[in-house]
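QUALITY CONTROL LOG
STEP: pairwise intake check
CHECKER ROLE: data steward
CRITERIA: each record must contain a sequence immediately followed by its structure tokens, with no blank fields

ENTRY 1 OF 2
RESULT FIELD BELOW
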Amino acid sequence: METPAEMLDQEACYRAVLTRDARFDGRFFGCVKTTGIYCRPVCPARTPKRENMTFVVSAAAAEEAGFRACLRCRPETAPDMGAWRGTSNTVSRALALIEAGALDDRNLEHLAERLGVGERHLRRLFRQHLGAAPVSVAQTRRVLLAKALIHQTDLTMAQVALASGFGSVRRFNETFQALYDRPPSALRRRGERPGDGGVRLSLPYRPPYDWEAMMVALAARGDTVEGHSWSRLLIQAVDGAEGRVWVQSAEPGRVDVRVEASDLRAVPGVLARVRRVFDLSADPQAIGCDLSVDPVLAPLIAARPGLRLPGHWIDDSAEPPSDRLMDAVLADRAEAWRPWRAYGALHLFMAGLNAADTKESDNVKDAA
């Protein structure tokens, strides 16, 4: 299911939908031809007939094809799988920039220049790996973030428009009217929400998650950690606003984020950085499956399947964090770990092992 858009196994996707298999949540979306709606594999609604469904690799591909998001399973709450695909470094870097708002106030040509590729080539890569154009991915990101803000906060519609990256309230209203045939305010469900200020959102991730290890790692490098809560000051020059962001663990599969910012337009970038710092887009199943082929890593991953890579708030590297390797001694062995080399090195570090230990383990196995 981690393959490019055109290689999705449609029958396998339908079997996953029939069983509402949570392992595939976020890996693909099902489009229902009879209703014009697209859903997550775990949608609680009655499963449509096979002939009425087609499957796409991204929410953007579904919306570009004319389908609108299901109001029951809410695709905006699915785990984000974009950053870990490993199919194209260029696409991964582009997704990170788009998530931070790169296409909210700039055009595709500028994004392509930042990536060092041609605009046409970038479009081709997005079609190949996500089944949608970069501008469609950017619009879907804005719409799904706006839906989350509408459902989870009491921000006014004008504030939601700013906080989700829309350039104007008019554009915000027109987009929702076109996609859902109703104004955005019609999607709001009233209920009790925390009244301590700021923008509060619950961000999804794919369990398991070793929260204790993450907090220890963040505190060790000097981040502000108090118990199970992490926070950081927002700076105008870096974040586009003054303020602060707090993150703490919630129910399994979710983290709670609170952002207090002097300018709501900074919210998309702040959330993108939170996802990177806490490695919320990681897929433990894919990582464990690939790395467990190494006999040294297999027991380590089985013991700690929820390890995540602490990310940096500011990260302009061209190489995905998941594939970075700081230990040159491990280079030869770690080549087989791609694109998860950094995870392999992290598991060794957490187990107190080094390159010499892995070689010794191999020698013992060979001797046996």
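ENTRY 2 OF 2
RESULT FIELD BELOW
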Amino acid sequence: MNAPVLDTRGASRVRPITIAILAMGGEGGGVLTDWIVDLAEHGGYLAQKTSVPGVAQRTGATVYYVELFPKNAARTQAPVLALMPVPGDVDIVLASEFMEAGRAIARGLVTPERTTLITSTHRVFTMQERVAVADDRVDSQALLKSSEESSLRLYAFDMAGIAEMTGSLVTAVMFGVLSASGALPFQRSAFEATIRRGGVGVEPSVRAFKAGYETATAGPAASPGSSLPAAQGEGRIPALLSTISDRLTSLSRPVISAGVDRLTEYQDENYARLYLQRLEPILTIERARDGKPDELLTEVGRSLALAMSFEDTIRVAELKIRRARFDRVREEVKAKHGEIVEIAEYFHPRRQEIVETVPAPIGRWMMRSKWASALLDRATRKGRTVKTSSIPGFLLLSLIASLKPMRPRSLRWIAERARHESWLERVTRIASEDYALAVEIARCLGLVKGYGDTHDRAVKKFEILMDALPELQRRGAAATQLGALRRAAVVDESGDALKRKLAEIMHG
């Protein structure tokens, strides 16, 4: 790492070891930086550290930067240490989360000629990923591929999961991986001694350090992609799926399997059976393509399963009183056994949500009746807080959730069914003319999600895309343009980005 380099006059010079650490608030990035500095100073090196806090995403990512220079070389060469990492000149990058590794790559801090990249593959989603109307998560497999191509050496696995199991921070695991990588000229014992000199949380940190070290040196079992989450539903075939399983590929099977499970839980087996019936025309299209990847079936299966499990008042109530939710809340607040946890849920249903929940004839009457509408408006003018941890609150939501058998007779069900069938007919019709466009149309239904005002805005965006479709087909390159519009639709809730993109395409 400290191989001599030639300066502009041809003289031999020793370059410092450069280390960039990208971590979010509360993950111990400062502690890891201090450990590296202490390790270096006890190992005969000069060390300089700096940090630049940021609020670019999530809880605020900070870039810590450390340069190490051997003391013996400082006798003949005055060290000049930089305050910030320079693209193309970083030896080691440690990222506490996978997106942080992506940001380091985008900044040019990771290079295939020089950089050892150590990153946890778990994700803490960015605000853009969280607030997007559709699924706008960054593809972890794409991040992995980029990490492999951009680095000299890569150590990538779920370090956060190991930290949780050992009761420590992810940076303690990263310190163990750093030791195992051999990227620094210090023995493992020196790393452990550094942790013990810190004097705080020593035992959990040592456990995490050892687990990180052992995982990094475990060979093929700890390969970069081994800890990335597998697709949901992989390897499990619901009984309902057995009749068409042989017509599915490894691409579509896990998606449709998960869709069957989801819709059976959401309503019942008959509803999941309807889902499979709706997929039959797409299965026929894919079978005629002679073994090509069934991308259209996969996208239709995913979008349709999500759309058919739409959020209504019944679904919201059901989710709020699940045992898993109470257990998750207790875990989040770290409640001990025997401690009482009070959960207050805020609800503000509009007249529309109530009308859409009851059987269609009653709902239509409520919409026509002036006095019924006025009564509902008055009742829903203000939101209310329901304590689901109390008996009255729990019973109230249980009553609403018990209306599930009535759902197929509701106005919301009728409206959603009409939208799904119209969309599916369009996808099927266009697939024979333009397969790529049909795939994009399939993805567009994923925009329609949420509850209340969020759902209304999502429906409007979806309708804008479907209304623009004929003009896009007339202009050519419809699949590419529709894909650009779909991505613009998830940028903001207001739909302003979609309107700008649509104007750009139509008038460009």
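INTAKE CHECK: passed for both entries
DESCRIPTIVE NOTE, ENTRY 2: Residues 5-11, 220-237 have pLDDT under 50 and may be disordered.
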